[in-house]
UniProtKB/TrEMBL annotation:
Known EC number: 2.1.1.107
Assembly and oligomerization: Homodimer.
CDD domains noted in UniProt: SUMT
Protein name, entry field: uroporphyrinogen-III C-methyltransferase
Enzyme category, top tier: transferase
Lineage of source species: Archaea, Methanobacteriati, Methanobacteriota, Stenosarchaea group, Methanomicrobia
Highest taxon of source: Archaea
Family indicated by similarity: Belongs to the precorrin methyltransferase family.
Any GO BP: methylation
Length: 248
C-alpha cells in the first residue's frame, strides 16, 4: 500500500451565505494546499481560500457532474499523496445528500487520513431564512428530508411516497426542482391533501433568495410561471403557513 502524507478534509461550506460557515472550515481553507470545490459553493466563500492554494473546480451539482464521482474519489486519493492539506469543499453538509460518505469510504479504503467538518445544511437554513421553521410545537413534531434527485441508475425509487404522504410532519425535498411535478404527483396520488401548503426557496440565505408559496395543487404551475430554478429547497407541510408571520 502506498504511503500517504496528506490529510483530506471533507468540508461543508454551508447554505450559501458566506457568514454561515464554521470557524474550523475557514481555518482549514486558509491553510489548504489544494481546494477541490463544487458548483454549489457560493462565490463569497472564496475569500477564505488560501491565496497560494491550487484550486480545482469539480463543478458538481444534481444535474451537472463535470467530474464523475468515481473520478472525484480517485482525485482525492491522488491529491492526498501530493499535498499536506487537501480541502474537499461542498455546499451544505458533506453527509447530507452530498456524497461525502462515498468519498470518505474511498479515502478509508486507501488508508488516507481524513476528517469531516460539518456544515449547515440548506435543508434547514433555507426554510429558516424564508421564515419557515421546519418544526413547530403546534404544527409539526417531525421533519423528514429526502432527495428530489435520486441516483438515475437505481432500478426503482427507494422513496416510499405512501408513507411520506401519510405523515403529519414537515417534508423537505432537496434538489427537488427538476422533478417537482413528479414528486408532487406522487404525493397526491398517495393521498396527500391537495391544499397542503408548499414553499420553494431558491438560493436560500443569499441576496438572490426568492420564495414561492402555494399548495400541492398549485405549486407546479406557480413554479413554471415564476421560472423557478435550482438550487432550491421544497418544503411541504403546515409550517409553510408561518412564512406569512415570520417571512418579513
Amino acid at each position: 500500500m502506498m504511503p500517504t502524507t496528506g490529510k483530506v478534509y471533507l468540508i461543508g461550506g454551508g447554505p450559501g451565505d458566506p457568514e454561515l460557515i464554521t470557524v474550523k472550515a475557514v481555518r482549514i481553507l486558509g491553510q489548504a494546499d489544494v481546494i477541490l470545490y463544487d458548483a454549489l459553493v457560493g462565490p463569497g466563500i472564496r475569500q477564505y481560500f488560501n491565496p497560494a492554494a491550487e484550486l480545482i473546480d469539480v463543478g458538481k451539482r444534481a444535474d451537472k457532474h463535470t467530474v464523475p464521482q468515481e473520478e472525484m474519489n480517485r482525485m482525492l486519493v491522488e491529491q492526498a499523496r501530493k499535498h499536506r492539506i487537501v480541502a474537499r469543499l461542498k455546499g451544505g453538509d458533506p453527509y447530507v445528500f452530498g456524497r461525502g460518505g462515498e468519498e470518505a469510504e474511498e479515502l478509508a479504503k486507501n488508508n488516507v487520513e481524513f476528517e469531516v467538518i460539518p456544515g449547515i445544511s440548506s435543508a434547514i437554513a433555507a426554510p429558516a431564512a424564508a421564515g419557515i421553521p421546519v418544526t413547530h410545537r403546534d404544527l409539526a413534531s417531525s421533519v423528514t428530508f429526502i432527495t428530489g434527485h435520486e441516483d438515475p441508475t437505481k432500478g426503482e425509487s427507494a422513496l416510499n411516497f405512501k408513507s411520506l404522504a401519510a405523515m403529519n410532519g414537515t417534508l423537505v425535498i432537496l434538489m427537488g426542482v427538476s422533478r417537482l411535478r413528479d414528486n408532487v404527483k406522487a404525493l397526491l396520488d398517495n393521498g396527500k391533501a391537495r391544499d397542503t401548503p408548499v414553499a420553494i426557496v431558491e438560493k436560500g440565505t443569499t441576496s438572490g433568495q426568492r420564495v414561492t408559496i402555494g399548495t400541492l395543487s398549485t405549486i407546479v404551475e406557480l413554479a413554471e410561471k415564476r421560472g423557478v430554478e435550482a438550487p432550491a429547497i421544497v418544503v411541504v407541510g403546515d409550517v409553510v403557513r408561518m412564512h406569512e408571520v415570520l417571512g418579513g
